[in-house]
Amino acid sequence: MAKDQLSEAEKYRLERKKRIEKEKKKKNSYFNRNRQQVKKVEKTVGIVVACCLAVTIICLLLNFFGVFNRMITAAKVDGQSVSVAEMNCAFADVKNQVYNASQQYEQSSGQGFYNNETKSTDPCVYDSSKTWGEYFEEQAMEHVKQVYSFKDGEGNTLTEEQSSQIDETFDTLKESAENNKFSINAYIREVYGIGVNQKVLRTWLENVYKAQNAQTAMSDTYKEGLKDEDIKQYYSENTQKYVNASAMAYTIHVDTTDVAEQLEKEDLSNEEIDKIVASAVKETKAKADALYEQVKEDPSDFVSIINTYEKDDKQEAATTYTESTLTMTGKVSEKMASLGEKAQLWVAGADEGDVGVIYTANYETKTFQFDIVRVLEPAENFSTVAVRHILIQPESTEDDASWEEAKEKIDTIYAKWKKKPTEDYFATLAGEESSDPGSKDNGGLYESVTPGQMVDTFDAWCFDADRKEGDTDIVKTSYGYHLMYFVKNNGAYWKTQVPTDMANDYIEKNVTEKLEAITVEKALGWGKIKEVQDYKDAQKSTTTTTVEETTAAEQAQAEGSEETTAAAE
User: Fold this and answer.
1) Half-sphere exposure (Cβ direction) of 480: Cα atoms closer than 13 Å
2) What are phi and psi of 66, to 5 degrees?
3) Which residues, given as ranges, of the chain have pLDDT below 50?
4) How many CA atoms does the CB half-sphere of 523 hold within 13 Å?
5) Does pTM surpass 0.85?
């Protein structure tokens, strides 16, 4: 049938069919183009997600291995950046010092004050107003200030011995790591905190030594420049530090209870303090002068005069003194430390039989006292000695068998040394066998022992008039058996000690002034420090425990009240 012969209806259907097919092609074309775009978007999103995941994994790895902690600044010391890793090292140094001090104290007294169970929120024994966490933070800051202030100073070069000690530290860490199945870096990270590795720790230890060496160089330079007249002048002004004497003494303290609030004011001058305590001092002086007149009249009756005064003045709270409890013998600044500084100086310059009443005002502590003193033996200079010893302690000081075992062991060591009787070999044996933590790592050496410094039998052996270099013997003390080796007599104590003390005063003054002028500011990374994090966790734990305990107590109290009510009903 020809096209022109089609009916109008048929023509309409054909045109409609063409339009539908055209629309269909158009839709298919749009769908295909849209599908391609979707695929492109999906591909792009996949790439972005993959990249983000890769970056996240890399960041986690970098954080795990401490890269960020080596880069992030935890504090700034006078503008110098200190990383989180370095601060972790500083905290570890401070904590180890406390831990070692506690162990030494435990060995000597039987009870330590810090161990692995001690919480950061527990009170600090050095300062009860602070927690251990606060103490560590304060000391770590000071430690960092010291290191950063002096590590680049003149004379900071490491000695061979210091380099060897650092190597030994890493050998010990490596051994501990192997025993605990860690790699060396993983073990260091576990002990010191994230960010600390061998390189960081070695650099830190070197810087600590460098800072120490720079200060030592300052001290040596100062000592070299001292003149004889300077040394003698210092000695005359501080004689009590360098002489021995024997004296009987009694102290009357000025009671400042009534003016305590006035003394608590800050920035009081010495003159202002004197005015505040003038009345109390005058009252106490009258008592001290009266007591002094009695002692001066009959010095041999010192003990009974003091006891009579105690009973009259304190009545039921009186203390009964004996000759031994009132007598002080030895280095004046140490054995007579309870006396005021002026009284110590007076004793250092007094003659045998002299009696005095000396007033000392300590403006720093705001304490005031009168000392009534009778000199038994006048002050005299003394020499110091250098000795080595090996201490063998009994397992129990209350057990005879333990003492016998200790004696057998010290005899064996002595016999072993006699086969090679040199000081060097003695030092080696001390390092291997001695139980004394204060000298073990130094070959058992005490370089400047003063009279009265050691326990009685140890002291008597050291200062025997016939003692000579190379002498050896076994001495028994309350600590155990000591194998002794006399190194030498150092000569007059004050001649060697005064220059050292003057240099120490000089260094302390200059270091203090320098450190006070330095500012330390916490930075972004402060919260990432291992000890700070532990401190926060401990605080949180303590708070939670306290809340739980309080809630439990309240519940128990409520239950108790209910039971009481029920019983009453």
Assistant:
1) 24
2) 80, 15
3) 1, 55-56, 58-65, 542-569
4) 19
5) no
